[in-house]
Specification:
Layout lengths: L13 E5 L5 E4 L9 E2 L5 H5 L4 H8 L10
Parallel strand pairs: 1-3
Antiparallel strand pairs: 1-2
Length: 70
Amino acid sequence: MTAIIHPDMAKPVRYLTCCCCGETTRGRQWHNRDTGFGLCVGCLPLCSRGETAEGFESCYGVRGVHYAVG
């Protein structure tokens, strides 16, 4: 079985501002988010509440690639 690597993994991990709480977080820029903004781990439960997996990904990106990075 071959692991699929997301193309954004080549982007640098940066300090971003959480789009929910305004705290600093580390992640990669998601194309559907304003430049310099991402999502912090602390806001995951609030932001994912009531969202489908597809809807959440379209707003915030992929876990481990764009947010909740290592």
